[in-house]
Amino acid sequence: MPNSFRQGPDSRGRFGQFGGRFVAETLMPLILEVEAAYEASKTDQAFQDEWRRLLKDYVGRPSPLWSAERITAHVRKSAKPGKGAKIYFKRDELNHTGAHKINAVLGQILLAKKMGKTRIIAETGAGQHGVATATACALFDLPCTVFMGATDVERQQPNVFRMKLLGAEVRPVSAGAGTLKDAMNEALRYWVANVTDTYYCIGTVAGPHPYPMMVRDFQSVIGEEAKVQMQAAEGRLPDALVAAIGGGSNAMGLFYPFLDDPSVQMYGVEAAGRGIDTHEHAASLAKGRPGVLHGNRMYLLQDDDGQVQEAHSISAGLDYPGVGPEHSWLHEIGRVRYVSATDDDALDAFQLCSRLEGIIPALEPAHALAATMRLAVGMDADKILVMNMCGRGDKDIFTVAKLLGERL
Amino acid sequence: MSRIAARFASLKGTRGALITYLQAYDPDPATSLAILRGLPGAGADIIEVGMPFTDPMADGPSIQLAAQRALKSGATLSRTLALVRDFRAEETATPIVLMGYYNPILSYGVASFCVEAASSGVDGLIIVDVPPEEADEIEPDAKAQGLDLIRLVAPTTDDSRLPKVLAATSGFVYYVSILGITGTRSASRESMAAEIPRIRAHTDLPIVIGFGIRTPAQAAEAAGIGDGAAVGTALVDVLAGSLDEHGRAKSDTVRRVLDAVRALAEEIRR
Ligand SMILES: Cc1ncc(COP(=O)(O)O)c(C=O)c1O
Questions:
Q1: Which CATH number fits the domain that encloses residue B211?
Q2: Best of A146, A318, A340 for a ligand 1 pocket test (most atoms within 8 Å of beta carbon)
Q3: Does the active-site annotation cover B59?
Q4: Using the 8-state DSSP alphabet, how is residue B76 labeled?
Q5: How many domains does chain B have?
Q6: Which residue of B has its CA nearest to A295?
Q7: Is there an atom of ligand 1 within 6 Å of A104 CB?
Q8: How confident is the model over B121-158, as pLDDT tens digits?
Q9: Is 80 exceeded by the pLDDT of residue A2?
Q10: How far apart are alpha carbons A85 and A390 in whole angstroms?
Q11: Where residue A116 falls among pLDDT bands split at 50, 70, 90?
């Protein structure tokens, strides 16, 4: 075991064997430029001050830490006596634009400006990262193009319209299954052709180095706040952290500041789709093996020939066949446990949370909530669990209504 | 001398080389082998065989569709190697270069892939998503088997970076003449004429120009400025255009592709 879990990545962008820079030569010089600019920004006080100001006055940070008493009570009803951990939500769904994505977007857009880039591109699955990027581009007066799988355009209509209102161009991608993987392929292809003036704002802790590190660093504001807030609320560290895993950015953001606190257990929740033993899921860690896609080595759903398989999840934001390199590494060394929740689990949790807490979660953290309740039932009642409520469910209303047989 | 070096040596001072690209198993194994076998006679000096991959990130729509056809017709990496073996059984002079993406190779096992590629008659590899920064992933095994690792040099590869890229290259240098993916735009004569001497100043290796070369005239021009011209999308388009509505080869598919190669070769030889 390393004596710190917070030293990665190395100079080659590796977390153990994972990560790296597997991109075509055309992009390589630019990737190195992004890395240099990002390293410089860390000690650039004006840059840091501006990012913090935006987080506070534009995003509305810090996001509250909410003691979810009715969910906790609900869990305890079905728990054995003395069992049923206390559940807190880290409420990043209250951020401007409705999810955690904006944290890293603002950092990256400031970086793009610093680098003198004049166009922004992004990929999006659920549309939250696309909306966050379109928002920041509106604020900073930058033209923005968002690549989105055609299937996702269909199932996340409200976000597509939002992006358009914000002045972004949404490009539907029909290749493959028309989901997040295909959107990222297309964004990378576009970037190759427009390297000189364009910055690619990646929405998760994946892609070539330095993206996994950079996005994690920006998202770590979630865990840093949670640590302070938990100290204020309970005078101690939480016992467990839970977060949904698409590419893994909201989870890395919550986990990273706690990685060297050995008493804190961590659980990443992958999307099990129609079931982890079917072919329709997005459980890259449970069912994939190490591979290279989108610029980095990571756990990847693939067939025996190394062809990438389509993922499936009710949640467009989790519907991705890979998972970021740092999670891949944390999985292999066992620091974080990765579990899963099915489409049905998420749908149930979505409705339960709405009724019990008055919080309509996004389908992504609804997966985390399903796993949270399962974990909390088996934990002692004096234990504390923090779940990342990383997005709100407005975007999912139509999908869920349809599944529940409601016509809007 | 390697087959690649021998081929360039034999052309030196006379004309540039024609490098053709088609994907293995596009649109089916028998047609793919028939085309492969016909390429040297049609005038291909070096043959690139695309290794089909689900997510070809440096390729435009034509080659993306080629990969889908190939995968649908059963392509795998080991079948691609078998295809090369079948070709090599009859042809020993024309170099074969496999071009594709890293994940299928990683999945196959880098060491055994290099052993089997070499024994199947492969001469070189172009792995688009393994830049010099990640060279140690495959370089030791490729070298041990005598496989050339051909690297891409792009317009963005500036003079400070060129030596690093070239140091990791053997066989020939593949100059990507445009900013962009395959089959989307073409470079101007001026930009090629400016870029090739810039690269030559750093290397004695032959320089092949690729990406965006479609017509016989463009091929001849590029082969005159560099040491060879690589044509991919244009040939894939001819192949695609020859298929029936279900994407199956028709009786003249092989002939039409080889005719297109012949037209390129003639112009280069003029
Ligand atoms: C609300 C929400 N949560 C989670 C995700 C998944 O991404 P990540 O795992 O990077 O947090 C998304 C992605 O679209 C999202 O919108």
A1: 3.20.20.70
A2: A318
A3: yes
A4: -
A5: 1
A6: B129
A7: no
A8: 999 999 999 999 999 999 999 999 999 999 999 999 99
A9: no
A10: 20
A11: very high
Q: Are B147 and B182 in contact (CB under 8 A)?
A: no
Q: What pLDDT score was predicted for residue A157?
A: 87
Strand partners, A267: A242, A337
Sort residue A145 into left (φ over 0), alpha (ψ -120 to 50) or beta. Answer: beta
Token pair of B3, please?
């087959």
Atom of ligand 1 nearest to the CA of A205: 10
Provide DSSP, B164-221: HHHHT--S-EEEE-SSS-TTS----HHHHHHHHHHHHTT--S-EEEESS--SHHHHHH
CA of B40 to the centre of ligand 1 (A): 51
- Tens digits of residue pLDDT in A225-234: 999 999 999 9
Number of Cβ within 10 Å of residue A101's Cβ equals 33
Tokens at B27, concatenated: 């649109």
A3: confidence class by pLDDT, cuts 50, 70, 90: confident
- Residue B166: is its pLDDT beyond 80? yes
Residue nearest to atom 3 of ligand 1 (CA): A364
The strand pairing partners of A295, in sequence order, are A22
Confidence bin at A155 (pLDDT 50/70/90):
confident
Whether the CB-CB separation of A122 and A155 falls below 8 Å is answered with no
In the three-class reduction of DSSP (H, G, I as helix; E, B as strand; rest coil), residue B81 is classed as helix
Nearest-by-Cβ selection for B153 from A25, A294, A308: A25
pTM score, whole prediction: 0.97
Kindly identify which residue of chain A lies nearest to residue B179, measuring between CA atoms: A193
Report how far residue A257's alpha carbon sits from residue A230's, in angstroms, rounded to the nearest whole number.
13
Structural element, H or E, at residue B229 = strand B228-231
**Does residue A68's CB lie within 6 angstroms of at least one atom of ligand 1?**
no
Indicate yes or no: CB of B179 within 8 angstroms of CB of A192.
yes
When pLDDT is averaged across residues A164-185 and rounded to a whole number, the result is 94
Report whether A300 contacts A293 (CB < 8 A): yes
Q: What is the distance between the alpha carbons of residues A145 and A118, in angstroms, rounded to a whole number?
A: 12
Q: Could you tell me if the CB of A363 is within 6 A of ligand 1?
A: no
pLDDT in tens, A238-266: 999 999 999 999 999 999 999 999 999 99
pLDDT at A1: 65
Helices (H), chain B: 3-11, 29-42, 61-72, 77-88, 102-108, 110-120, 139-144, 162-167, 189-200, 216-225, 233-241, 253-269
Note whether B130 contacts A: Cβ–Cβ < 8 A.
yes
Q: How far does the CA of residue A240 sit from the closest CA of chain B (Å)?
A: 35
State the DSSP H helix or E strand holding residue A370, giving kind and residue range, or none if neither: helix A363-378
The reply to whether residue B71 touches residue A307, judged by beta carbons under 8 angstroms, is yes
Task: Looking at the complex, report in whole angstroms how far the Cα of residue B105 sits from the nearest Cα belonging to chain A.
Answer: 7
Query: For chain A, which domains are there?
Result: 15-57+101-215 (3.40.50.1100), 61-98+219-403 (3.40.50.1100)
Q: State the catalytic residue, choosing from B26, B59, B123, B267.
A: B59
Which residues span the domain enclosing B140?
Answer: 3-269
- Contact A364 CB / ligand 1 (< 6 Å): yes
Contact call for A292 and B102, based on CB within 8 A:
yes
- Contact (Cβ atoms closer than 8 angstroms) between residue A386 and residue A90: yes
The question of whether B252 is a catalytic residue gets the answer no
Which residues of chain A are within 8 Å of residue B131 when distances are taken between CB atoms? Answer: 21-25, 28
